[in-house]
Specification:
The chain is mostly beta strands. It has a single domain, classed as Sandwich (Jelly Rolls), CATH 2.60.120. It contains three helices and ten strands; from the N terminus they run αβββαββαβββββ. The longest helix has 12 residues.
């Protein structure tokens, strides 16, 4: 494995020819849609083309499993919060509250979680905040950045057919006001694929 990794890193740009091994920077992504009664949201369980998921929702191909002809070294986890509609001040507060009260875990081969952390660590200070104008007549504005990045201390190697489970767990169910909001999760890093 180490020799293979050294050889592929040496090639850097990949070969991109039929029958050879392609090496490229890749991002696998999937989305969860918030629903008031749901406190666990699993990613990569429903692949593209199933359960009404299109390429906009996910580019994952096999339920909970790395495709047969691929392997990946995951270096970053990325999170994106996408509101269904324009939100009120009360709803912004609810969004911040639910993101502070949930955690993420990543499991390989149904063993104990390989990594887990509060989701607020990934969002950090980029969580939605309300900025109020100082002068009379100024309008409240929402200054929001809805993405968070968690850089792994070491890469997580995922071989072909590796079973994974990526999940966000909320301590309590959120308000129905946020139903339909989406959280998109992605794994980023170099991918090797038989061309």
């Amino acid at each position: 494995m180490a020799d293979f990794q050294r050889a592929m890193r040496f090639l850097e740009s990949g070969t991109f020819q039929v029958g050879t091994l392609d090496y490229k920077w890749w991002e696998y992504y999937d989305r969860a849609v918030l629903a008031a009664a749901t406190v666990r949201h699993q990613f990569f369980a429903v692949p593209e083309g199933q359960g009404a998921k299109t390429k906009v929702d996910t580019n994952w191909q096999v339920a909970n499993q790395v495709p047969e002809s691929e392997r990946m070294a995951v270096m970053y986890f990325c999170f994106y919060y996408i509101p269904l509609e324009i939100r009120t001040q009360t709803e912004w507060t609810q969004i911040v509250d639910i993101l502070k009260e949930c955690y993420f875990q990543f499991t390989v081969y149904n063993k104990s979680p390989m990594i887990e952390f509060p989701l607020a660590i990934a969002f950090g200070n980029t969580m939605p905040v309300q900025v109020t104008g100082a002068a009379a007549g100024d309008q409240n504005i929402s200054r929001s950045r809805f993405n968070g990045i968690y850089e792994l201390g070491i890469e997580i190697p995922l071989a072909a057919k590796t079973t994974i489970k990526a999940e966000i767990v909320f301590d309590t169910a959120h308000s129905a006001d946020l139903d339909g909001d989406k959280i998109i999760f992605s794994m980023v890093g170099p991918k090797w694929q038989l061309g």
